[in-house]
Amino acid sequence: MISTQAWVLHPAASPGEPAQLVQEEFRFAPPEPDEALVRPLYGCWEGNMSHALRRSPLDLCVARDESSIVLGNAGVVEVVQAETTSGLRPGDRCLVFCNGEPDAHGYPRRIYGYDARRTIGVLARQTKLKNRQLIKLPADSSISLEQWAGFSLRYVTAWANWRVALGCWRAQMDDSPAAQAAVLSWGGGVGLAELTLARLAGHPAGMVASRPSRLALIERHGITPIDRSAFSEASFEADFLREVQRLTDGQGAAIFVDNIGAHYRSTLKALARQGVLATSGWKHGLTFPVVRASECIDRHIHVYTHYARRDEGEAAVAFADVHGWAPPKPQQVWAWDDIPQLAEAYAAGDIDDYFPVYSINRP
Q1: Which residues of the chain, if any, have pLDDT below 70?
Q2: 282 Cβ partners below 8 Å, 6+ apart?
Q3: What is the pTM of this model?
Q4: Domain 154-304 of CATH type 3.40.50.2020
Q5: Residues 344 and 31 sit within 8 Å (Cβ to Cβ)
């Protein structure tokens, strides 16, 4: 057995009790031939990790029937040991590709380091992954390892979601130039990544946020910032839709990326005819009512995706290396011992950074 230090999630002592991360010794069996032993370098705190600590919408210990779970499905690792036939060598730096259980077409059913059983996330000093869950990073890349850690889940998710959303829009609007079709998003790291792709494809783009630091970041990426703090609480939807109409010359959003869910009805109203609603996750609310007749008449397409296929992950990494498509360099990297404080700050909404990176084993 291999022994390592890890931040571990245990079953609730009583129903509904939130989880706490406990730093302790964690033991696991040596890698199988299709697995590699790795040393995590950096991770990125993801929304699904906060879901796990809230035990909502899924109590992972119950769902996985495991008494000790190590979270963490986004990051960069260094290979310690791998079969020579895998194409991996000791010292290789790799992106964590968190497709835990792919279906027959390669799309994920469950996610490594989250709901995929018997997976050991990167909140450990050592862990193991399937060889197919490691994408070798380009040598001498201008993108730092800390940036690649933020890229790991959010940017790969954005790449896969944008590929489908754009294809759906073009299926109905192949005669419409991108320059006249705005793409909008509520705040978030996936949204920022997706809108950057939209800009590179020629679409005007706008993103909703309220914190000055985030609004400034959005503008630096060539995206129009939409300051939601300027909207009145009493007339939020009307103010929001008025701003959407102004930014889109009265057309509405050709594609609207909504991974937040707090204003789903407003998102639908902000869509143009033949518009696409693109979702690859959620933060608020799991179930929303839809007036099917209205959506049919407006020819709206609803796109729902879940992370990515291996070839999409590889394409995203290759594109990023050539075009510098990556998260900004983090202003703060959280230390290993401060990970519980990171979890608390993220849950409380006290972190400005869309990509909160933490250190596990510094290179």
Answers
A1: none
A2: 259, 260, 261
A3: 0.97
A4: no
A5: no
The tokens describing 131, both together, are: 């060889």
Q: Which amino acid is at 335?
A: A
- Encode pLDDT of 261-304 as tens digits: 889 999 999 999 999 999 998 877 778 889 999 999 999 999 99
Which of 143, 109, 205 minimizes the C-alpha distance to 357? 143
**Domain range annotation of the chain:** 2-136+330-359, 154-304
Query: Strands, E, within the chain: which ranges?
Result: 2-8, 22-28, 35-44, 75-81, 93-96, 99-102, 108-111, 127-130, 134-136, 183-186, 205-209, 224-227, 253-257, 271-279, 301-304, 333-334, 357-359
Going from the C-alpha of 85 to that of each of 41, 78, 139, 255, 310, the distances in angstroms are 24, 17, 21, 43, 18
pLDDT in tens, 87-138: 999 999 999 999 999 999 999 999 999 999 999 999 999 999 999 999 999 9
Would the CATH topology of 2-136+330-359 be identical to that of 154-304?
Answer: yes
* Angstrom distance (rounded) from CA 270 to CA 237: 10
Structure tokens of 10? 């245990």
pLDDT at 16: 77
The CATH number assigned to the domain with range 2-136+330-359 reads: 3.90.180.10
Beta bridge partners of 95: 76, 135
Instruction: Please tell me the predicted confidence (pLDDT) of residue 128.
Output: 98
DSSP E strand stretches across 45-90: 75-81
- Cα–Cα–Cα angle for 169, 160, 288, nearest 5°? 70
Residues in the chain: 363
Q: Side chain identity at 133, as an amino acid letter?
A: Q
Query: Under 8 Å CB-to-CB from 284, ≥6 apart: which residues?
Result: 260, 261, 262
Of 290, 267, 286, the residue nearest 183 (C-alpha): 267
**Alpha-carbon gap, residue 255 to 277, rounded angstroms:** 6
Q: Are 39 and 125 in contact (CB under 8 A)?
A: yes
